[in-house]
Amino acid sequence: MKPITDILIPLDGSRRALEGLSVAIWLGARLGARLHIINAGPRCPVDEALVQLGVDEHQRLQLEIHQIEEPAADAILSAVERYRIGLVIMTAFGEGGPSDGSQAVGHVTREVIERAAVPVLVLPPNYEPAFPWRSTLVPLSGEATTDESLTTALQLAHRLDLNVAIAHVAGPAGSGESAMPGRYVDQVHHEFAQMLNQLVASACPMCSVEERARIEAFHLTQGDVGDELIRLVEEKGVGLLVLGWHGRFMIGHAQVLKRLMGQVRCPILLVKPAPKPRFRLKVGEEFE
C-alpha cells in the first residue's frame, strides 16, 4: 500500500453523505493527506457549491472541490485517476437511499467499490461516529487474494496508533468448511503460534517490524463467518473493520460483506488485491 496523500469524499448535499467528510477530516489530519470533495452535476461557483453540499464554512479551507459533469460513479472514478487518490471515503447510501434494509449499499457505492482500484472506506447505514479509533479487526481467510488487507491495516494502524486484531473463522463443526484447507480446528488450536506466524508472513511480507508489532490479538473461532465477525466487532469495540475482497457484489457474491454492511456500526475498509502484471510471451524476432 502506498502512503495515502490524497483522500476523495463524494458529496451529494445529503446529511448522510456529510458523515464521510467528518471521517475524512479526522483521517486527513493524522495522515497529512489532502482532502478532495467530488460532486457530480452541473458546475456552479465554488462557494455556492460548498453551501449546497452542506460544508461548514470553517471546513472549506481544508478542502479542494471538483465538479465533474458525469454520472456519479464515473465522476468519482475519474477523479481517483486524475488526482491520484489513495483512499475514497463514502457512505453506503447518499441522497434518497433506502432506510428499510432492503439493500446493503446504493448503486453508486456499489459501482465504486466494484470498479475502484484503491481502497474504499464505506460508512454502513448503522454507522455511529466514535473518534478516535482505537483498534482495527482484520479477518484473514488464508487466500492470497484477500490477505493484502492485513498489509493495508498494519500500515494504517502504524500511522494512526491503532491496535490490530486478526480473526480467522473456521466453518461450523462438521461442515468441512475452513479457510485453512486440510486443517482441523483442534489442530489449529494446538498450532496457534505457528499458524499466526504463517498467516502474517504470507499476508504482509513487506511490512516493517514496527508495523507488525501493531498486532495485539488473534481470534480463532468456529461457526458462521458473518455471525462471528459481527460478534467480535461488538464485543471488542472495533473502530475499523478491514476486509480483503474480490470486488464482486452481484447476486450470489459477497454474502458476508452484505451482512456486515447491514449490521455493524463501524467503518468498513475494503481492500482489493493489487493487479498482477500481465505475462507476455516473447516470440520470434524479439529473442534476437
From TrEMBL:
InterPro entries (alphabetical): Rossmann-like_a/b/a_fold, Universal_stress_UspA, UspA
Gene3D superfamilies according to UniProt: HUPs (3.40.50.620)
Domain UspA span(s) in chain numbering: 6-124, 134-272
Domain of life: Bacteria
Residues in the signal sequence: none
SUPFAM superfamilies assigned to the protein according to its UniProt record, in alphabetical order: Adenine nucleotide alpha hydrolases-like (SSF52402)
PANTHER family: STRESS RESPONSE PROTEIN NHAX, UNIVERSAL STRESS PROTEIN HP_0031
Family classification: Belongs to the universal stress protein A family.
Protein name, per record: Nucleotide-binding universal stress protein, UspA family
Lineage per the UniProt record: Bacteria, Pseudomonadati, Pseudomonadota, Gammaproteobacteria, Thiohalomonadales
